[in-house]
Amino acid sequence: MKIPFIGSSDKDEEKRDRKDKVTYKNSEDEGEQHLSSDEMNKIKESNEDVRDVPDTGRYHKDLISPAGIFEELGKAKVGEHHVKTIFINGWPDEPTIGFLNEILMDVPVKNDISIHISPFDSDYIIRRLEKQVQQSRSKLESSSGGLISSQRKAEAFEQTNEIYNALKQTNTELFDVGMYVTIRGESEEELRQATDQLFKRMRSAPALLKPTTLNLNQLEGMKSVSPIGNDTVGYKTEMMGGALGAMMPFSSKSIVEKDGIDFGIHAGNGSPVMVDRWKRDNGYNQLTVGKIGSGKSFSTQLNMLRSYASRDDVLLFMLDPVSGFDNVVKALNGEKVTVGGRLGLNPLEINETPEKILDKAADMDPYTVKKKNVMDFFEMYFYQRGVELLDSRGILEQAIEQAYSDKGITRDISTHSKESPTVMDVIDIIEEMAEHPERYSEVQSEQHLKEIEKQASRLINGFTQFREGGQYNNLAGKSELNIRENDVTYFDLSQQEGSGDIGLMMQLLFSEVYQIAKETDKKVMFIIDEAHYLMKDAKTLQFLETAVRHSRHLDLSINFVTQTIEEFFSHERSEAIAQQCSIKLFQRTESGINNEIADTLDLNQSEVNFIQTAQAGSAELGYSEALLGVGSYGYVPIRVMASDLEEKLITYESDKNEGTIRSKVLDTEEKLQDSNTEAIQTQPKPDPDRQQKQKATNNEDHADPDIDAIVDGFTTEDN
Predict the structure, then answer these.
(1) How many helices (H) and strands (E) does the chain have?
(2) Residue 351: Cβ within 10 Å count
(3) In CA terms, which of 313, 505, 560, 690 is 20 to 30 Å from 456?
(4) Which residues pair with 184 in a beta bridge?
């Protein structure tokens, strides 16, 4: 049967013409009122003007409706598409949370889904159920029927009584629910395959649905699925509020913020997820968690590229123990700093804090914070060597304060621009304490002086690694690290891996970036990979917690990237750091999120299930999945995808695939000439001064013809 498209028929036109013919009646004598010819002509012209006005509703219907609908048994052809509409004839007895998620989000079948929900009047339904409970009890108590009949009566009574008690004793409600799905295919065979695939997923756990084809009502079924919102089929099932809540997708919200960075595509509704980290009220920090191969490193680098390209006032710092950020650094003309060997770093270096920073954080005391930071550094140093400071702690604190005092540095902010002391200055003071303890004590008793001499001598023995030839001799003098003119800096700790000292160096470099964040007017992004190294030592956590708490006042965004989540909940301070991260990104993580951690992070069971089963990074699929949490928005499931150009920048291997990379570069350049669609969505036009400054500070050793060619395409493309 062919049904014409929905619109106005010829009879409708005739009715409208008849309505245009106006006959005037006189209200007093009910006789006809004759009009002059001029008046009749005016009315005629007016009616013609009205007929010239387009019928907008009809135009829209004609625009979106198909040329025709051919309805057959159990299927239909709409225009050039083959479709089948089904309804749900059975639901799971005990639905789990999010049992429809796979059907709504993950089935690769073209389909439209509508769920019609109508609440019952609670008072009416309770009265009706009360009668049914009484009837079921009477039947149950009757002696008629055999064993099977008695079992059925008992089940009916228990089910009815359970619903009755739930409605009467709790706030839950009863709903009428109908669900319809229209499946689409380009051909009859494609429709058949799509139907088989969808039916299989619906009948399997966790959905456990009973899909049924509308054999004789395909047209009505399509109406019920359409955006009109009317259930013209009327097949409904009674459902309690708890079951209704379980069937809903755990997140259908969209996050699209002005000036936001593209974090991915919403896995449920396909909308872009655009987040501006600098608009968070409770700080700009991020926690990124994912097992090896989940895609967390790729998504982290992708976010760095987009963040840097989106604005001119961002400084990027990366810290990684396994040398994983080389490509991004080269792509952005940054400087790679290999930590270890002879590079001089001064743990005691202090710089003046701008007044505007102090105005934002009235409780900030840079001098006290720096001294605590230095003490944390030394405590970790001794701790890694199996030595506890114990009674020597007071001597070390006194020596540090004396070293600053000798340079004229006090709590007065204006003194912080003076030359900083070094570790060797501290060692010299401790040696003098051992030789002349009386100079460093107000109490001149022999016993007290001997104690100073004893503890100072103990410390001297522990400082051997800072002397010439020692492992940390490069940390004993002035800093040779000049990164304050760089926009992009990468601290490569790969030479430290396996040495047991990664945590110590990470803490030292963290302090260096923290100092820069205090001095600059720009926003600072600091990405710390393998952040669990920082969480292992409780002696550094106090400094880290303070830095994270004050980071918002410094326009500092710290992204803690880790393989496991447990380290962030092994100590009260590390847990506080995790909770102060306003952005949380969970890629596939199959273990570690227990009930306590989930409650702390406000993760429900459906969201935990998504994290544990999220799609890991796949070149074939072209995306990885993650659960993104953004402050008050809550959590949304996303798919992280990169453009071809972004993927080349992150994943190229010039040493292994020289010819392949060259062909990729040429292909990219050709595409860029034909179209400007490869660019990062939020990329602004390049800043020549910024690029020139980066090139001036970049090491010549990092030059790579392949990546340079790709970068040229990245930096010259007009957005």
Answers:
(1) 26, 19
(2) 15
(3) 505
(4) 83
Sign of CA dihedral 29, 31, 36, 38: positive
Predicted pLDDT at 560:
94
Q: Which of 429, 433, 385, 440 is nearest to 404 (CA)?
A: 429
Question: What is the secondary structure of 495-532 as a DSSP string?
Answer: GGTTTT-HHHHHHHHHHHHHHHHHH-SSEEEEEETTTH
How far, in Å, CA of 663 to CA of 266, rounded? 33
Phi, psi of 636 (to 5 degrees): -135, 140
- Return the half-sphere exposure (C-beta side, CA atoms, 13 A cut-off) of residue 491: 31
Beta bridge partners of 84: 183
Residue 124: domain span: 68-247
Residue ending a domain, among 642, 670, 691, is: 642
3-state SS assignment for residue 319: strand
The verdict on 207 and 321 lying in the same domain is no
Q: Among candidates 690, 647, 688, 687, which has minimal Cα distance to 667?
A: 647
Whether the link from the prior residue into 206 is cis, omega within 30° of 0, is: yes
Helix, strand and coil in the chain, % to nearest 5: 50, 15, 35
Cβ atoms < 10 Å from Cβ of 623: 19
Helix (H, G, I), strand (E, B) or coil at 539: helix
Same structural domain, 276 and 138: no
Residue 707 pLDDT: 47
Q: What is the 3-state secondary structure (H, E, C) of 111-137?
A: EEEEEEEEECCHHHHHHHHHHHHHHHH
Two structure tokens written together for 573: 């301070």
Q: How far, in Å, CA of 649 to CA of 522, rounded?
A: 25
Residues contacting 595, CB < 8 A, separation 6+? none
- Same-domain status, 463 and 364: yes
Rounded CA-CA distance 443/465 in Å is: 32
Residue identified by tokens 């040329």 is 67
Written as one letter, the residue type at 312 is D
What are the tokens at 156?
């009916």
The kind and range of the H/E element at 375 are helix 366-383
Contact 396, 381 (CB under 8 A): no
* Amino acid identity for residue 90 in this structure: G
- Give the per-residue pLDDT at 696: 39
Q: Are residues 85 and 135 in the same domain?
A: yes
Residue 597, amino acid: I
Say if residue 294 is exposed, middle or buried (CB neighbours under 10 Å; 0-12, 13-18, 19+). Answer: buried
Tell me the H-state helices in 643-687: 644-651, 658-674
> What does the alpha-carbon distance between residue 550 and residue 163 come to, in Å, rounded to a whole number?
53
Residues 115 and 238 in one domain: yes
Q: Positive or negative CA dihedral for 145, 146, 150, 156?
A: negative
The last residue of a domain, from among 449, 480, 511:
480
What is the structure's pLDDT at 669? 41
Q: With contact defined as beta carbons under 8 Å apart, do 179 and 224 qualify?
A: no
Name residue 528's beta-bridge partners. 319, 560
User: Quick one: pLDDT at residue 41?
Assistant: 63
Determine the Cα–Cα distance for residues 626 and 139; give it in Å rounded to an integer: 54
**Strand pairing report for 583-586 and 286-289:** parallel
113 and 211, same domain (yes or no): yes
Number of structural domains the chain divides into: 5
> Beta strand pairing status for 2-4 and 68-72?
antiparallel
Does 411 lie in the same domain as 331?
Answer: no
Q: What is the CATH classification number for the domain harbouring 558? A: 3.40.50.300
81 & 190 share domain: yes
How far lies 443's CA from each of 392, 446, 451, 452, 659, in Å? 17, 9, 11, 11, 76
Q: How many CB atoms lie within 10 A of CB 71?
A: 18
Across-strand partners of 176? 118, 238
Cβ proximity of 560 and 527 under 8 Å: no
Q: Identify the burial level of 317 via C-beta atoms within 10 angstroms of its C-beta, where 0-12 means exposed, 13-18 middle and 19 or more buried.
A: buried
